[in-house]
Amino acid sequence: MLHELGIAAALGLRWLHWIAVAAALYGVLRTAAAIWQGRAWAGSDAKTRLRPRTQASLRWLVGGAWLALGCAVAWPVVYAASVSGPQPPGVWASMALAAQGWFPSWSELGQWHPAWVSSWRPDAGVPPGSRALARGEQAAAWLGAAYLAGAGVVFARQASWRLAAAMVVVACLLLAPGTPRPELVLAPATPHTFRQPPTDFDAGRILAGARHYQQLCASCHGAKGRGDGPLAARQPRWPSVLGPALFEHRHAGDLHWSVRQGLGNGTEGKAGASHAYGAALSSQEAWNVLDYLRAGAAGAELADHPGWRQALPAPDMALRCARLPQVQRLRDLRGQRVRIHAAHAGTPPVMPDPRLIDVVLRPGDPLHGPPGSDVGWADCGVPDAVSAAAWQAYAWVAGREAAQLDGAQFLVDRGGWLRAYQAPGDTLAWSAPDTMCEPGEIAPDQRTGEGLSDTLQRIDAQPVRPPLFRARS
Ligand code: HEC
């Protein structure tokens, strides 16, 4: 609710910005017309005075410009506050200070979720008490005071008040410390920074993304995204490794931007336009490719670390559930705990557990017959049409070859996040310390893992909260 109110307020400020610009232009035209007609001044001697009508025109001009400036700085701050929640004041201060390029364009005015129009965004890696942030706060406070005093200059009726206000403005501007360089307190942003993937991490789309990736990207970034494609050495810069570190430090929307519009936003000196694949990939297809890369990055993370450190949604897929006819997809089970089994037809069933919904994945071999026929012990199966894609997607997030996934198990929490993984052949049934997967580092001594109950309790007690802003490095 607060989120929607904030966005509505930001949009209101954006409209107000344009209204204020229009008012300032009106003032310019009126003043110019008066000068043109020789009617701006009351007399022609040295003691000339502006006519009241000219004074009013100038007030339109200055007032409009003053308001436009205020709105241009305020709306991105209000917008960022509503998409990101509370941040240290220094972050808002630096956002307000880095207000270059913040004048919204006409085409964006009608959009409900406006594009992010600053070149910068808050950087979670900057410690809250840092000196640069503190300086940004001071500078913003002084400049804000100057702006408020500017109201006196614009709106005061008496010349003496106006003069006093102007002196306060000058004093505030003189007292304000230099603003910190944006790169000290902020991270580069693109217009897509706060876009979220619309894909729900769908297994079918992950597979489609893999196909596009192999066609368009593998030549440089390598078949597995390790930056070792055959054309890599011929690039002016070495192609990035598209692994866990990338997803940790970049907003999904920024990656989407780099794939379709080109690398970076110009603040880092990257000449990235040649990296714009927007003509070859639709917006949806680019999200698919990123979902595929994210699945692969998760698998790579699992290979050298006992858990996924980044919040990872369980790949979504169509389901068929004998006892739950209203459930059509995995995401319909949000609010429940889910255990997903990758099991060939011959794999022995596990004990059903009343605390969980059991979903069985089949490798998609039509010889096994329709799901449900031999999975009576499970609550849900995956329809044949999508089971191959689902199996493959889960193999990727587990970092395994599809042929070696048989027997793996995954726990999905009530929010739909993948939380624990048990490798095939692990007979200790959730008691091995290695099976817990949680975003964030877990001290080794916390990894006690005493069976499924313990694991479930821990998962429920620590719900996943993906970071609103990522640390740049
Ligand atoms: C012609 C070679 C080439 C191709 C093809 C290519 N890339 Fe890149 N890519 C690069 C280079 C070079 C970089 C930049 C490395 C740097 O700036 O340090 C890069 C960087 C990236 C980044 C990192 C951006 C960031 O935020 O740092 C992503 C994501 C990416 N590419 C995705 C893709 C995807 C997806 C495709 C296929 C649609 C693709 N690339 C195709 C060469 C290529």
Explain the overall architecture.
A hairpin with a 5-residue loop joins strand 7 (409-412) and strand 8. Helices cover 44% and strands 6% of the residues. Helix 5 runs antiparallel to helix 6 (159-175) and helix 8 (203-216) packs across helix 12. The longest helix has 35 residues, at 2-36. Residues 366-373 and 440-449 have low confidence and may be disordered. The chain is α/β, with parallel strands linked by helices. It folds into three domains: 2-42 and 49-188, no CATH class; 203-295, Cytochrome c-like domain (Cytochrome Bc1 Complex, Chain D, domain 2, Orthogonal Bundle); 307-461, 3-Layer(aba) Sandwich (Glutaredoxin), CATH 3.40.30. The protein has helices at residues 2-36, 52-84, 89-97, 106-109, 131-155, 159-175, 182-185, 203-216, 218-221, 244-249, 252-260, 283-304, 384-398, 451-461, and strands at 120-122, 186-188, 320-321, 338-342, 357-361, 380-381, 409-412, 418-422. The chain has a six-stranded mixed sheet with strand order 3-6-5-4-7-8, with helices on one face. Strands 1-2 form a two-stranded antiparallel sheet. Bound molecules: heme C. Residues 216-217, 219-221, 231, 235, 237, 239-240, 242, 250, 255, 258-259, 263, 270, 275, 277, 281, 289 line the site of heme C. GO terms for molecular function: electron transfer activity; heme binding; metal ion binding. This is Cytochrome c, mono- and diheme variants. Residues 204-297 form the Cytochrome c domain.
